[in-house]
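Sample entry (236 residues):
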Amino acid sequence: MSRTSQAQPGDTDRTEFDEAQVSNYLRAHPDFLMQHPELLETLELNHTTGSAVSLIERQVEILRGRSQRLEDRLSQLVDAARDNEKRATSVHRLARTLIRAPTLASAILGLQTRMREEFDIDEVFVGLMSAVLKRSDIEGLARLDPDGTVARSFDNFFRTKLIECGPLAEAQARLLFPRAAELPQSAAVVPLEKEKNLGMLVLASRDPERFQPRQGRLFLEMTAELVAAAVRAKLA
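Predicted structure, serialized as tokens:
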């Protein structure tokens, strides 16, 4: 009569210990399988679908996946570099336009043109505080009264003097762009010379997703500095 073998106490622990030893050994000797290539032909790994592949095939698959991820990341970096280069060129053109403008009116017109052609921005509003701007006959340039309708409509902006990006309320859009064929849906509201309270710059788009609350501020700050410098030069 045959005897049924029974598991001895500690067998499970011994198996786990042996597997740990094998794992540690392979880590310490990464060339082990190269020294024993016959094992590569017999070792198999099961896919989630149930099919078996050799260890070499599995390693190749993993390496291909890593290579593809690296290629995708490199492609993203290249695209970002191209976008930054394009934007830098556009900012340079904007600066040149503002510097070369002979009058305040031509500077505002040049700003509107560059914003539309270089940055795909549909509407531009420049408002200067009434203390520095005495005239009101330049299209696209408005005098801002501290107690006026624009100041009341953007009271939070004038209180904090922080850049605001996001949806543009219909009442605000009509106030800033009464002649717009189609009212913009989103905008960036940027202070001009925050410390000196020169005024405000509003870049608006018909695309409701064009300006987002958490988007980068660097381009907006650079544009505001260029506009403020051009305005100051033409007011003097």
